[in-house]
Amino acid sequence: MNKKKFLAMLLTCAMALAVLAGCSNSDTTAPADNGGDDAGSEGGAYKIALIQQHQTNAFQIAVTEAAEAKAAELGVELKILSADQDAATQISQIEQCVSEGYQAILFEPVDPDGLRDAAKNAADAGVVVINIISACTDWEEAGISAVSYGNNVKAGETEMQQVADLLGGKGNIAILTGPSADAGGLQRMEGYENILANYPDIVQVVSPADCAWDTAQAQATVESWLSAYDLDAIVCENDGMAVGAGNAAGADSGIIISGVDGTPDGFEAIKDGRITGTVSQNGGAMAANGIEAAVTLLNGGTLETNVLVTDNTWIDASNVADYE
Fold it and tell me: Can you tell me the mean pLDDT for 26-45?
């Protein structure tokens, strides 16, 4: 082989090796998840977890759907979990999400006191933690970055004031509550009491019943009440229980039945006369606002306020068509 042919062969081999090297160094995978340094950059996505108290009624379904829509809009990866109203389960889920490298965790605390340590541990690990719908006790001290919820005291006041007006300031009432330790339920009860203090002729003829947000439990409870008490109104801390009460009383019963949440099943019950009205707090917006806040913080931005509050609106037969 002469010298020219040998040099040409060497040059050809060198060019082939360069092409192979270039192919082996091209980026064909998503950026590694290293706690946020690469996530959110071009080709990456933030990992956000949403841990709901439960997923057993229309309000929570609306929360799920709104969270999914907002995550898709913002291009983030969203994992949704249900704690099934068990604090130990929720603590374990938070810990698991931290270990799996989620950069933000949104959750509605099953137990406002019992979830503080888990929230603080997550925040100390560098995770953005946001409460939605209700908040942990002393949430800022637990390292929680923001809360996104309705004003439950105001919602309770709005609901009870509407009932008081419809009763003309006097009558026999009964109250259905959520779980006894639930912060949102306790706040709604506070709102009820604030209004009832102004109406001595509105009488609770039976102790409030904990129906755990559940439609079937509420229906069974009200069925037993109706055989024992003469009720003018049944005030419920959520729409699911109001629907249960309406199922027990029947359409156009003459009993004022109210709820909170503004859910599709509540709207349907208003239209067919099983319940009188509901206070909408827009749970979907609570979730969507929380995800948006998390992304703002993950991007290094700041929030104008770390208390994100949705509006309360009384919805009855006169305006339900505007909210469906």
Answer: 39
Structure tokens at 38: 């690469």
pLDDT digits (tens, 9 = 90+) for 85-124: 999 999 999 999 999 999 999 999 999 999 999 999 999 9
User: pTM for the complete prediction?
Assistant: 0.70
pLDDT digits (tens, 9 = 90+) for 195-221: 999 999 999 999 999 999 999 999 999
Residues 53 and 106: their CA atoms lie apart, in Å, by: 11
* Backbone phi, psi, residue 128, to 5°: -75, 120
What are the DSSP calls for 206-230, one per residue?
A: S--EE-TT-HHHHHHHHHHHHTT--
- By CB atoms closer than 10 A (0-12, 13-18, 19+), residue 208 is middle
Q: 10 Å Cβ neighbour count for 29?
A: 6
Q: How far apart, in Å, are the Cα atoms of 195 and each of 42, 158, 179, 259?
A: 53, 9, 22, 16
36 — pLDDT class (breaks 50, 70, 90): very low
Residues 6+ apart with CB under 8 A from 41: 31
3-state secondary structure of 134: coil
Cβ-based neighbours of 48, under 8 Å, separated by 6 or more: 71, 76, 77, 78, 79, 102, 103, 104, 105, 106, 291, 294, 295
Residue 25 DSSP class: T
Residue 141 DSSP label? G
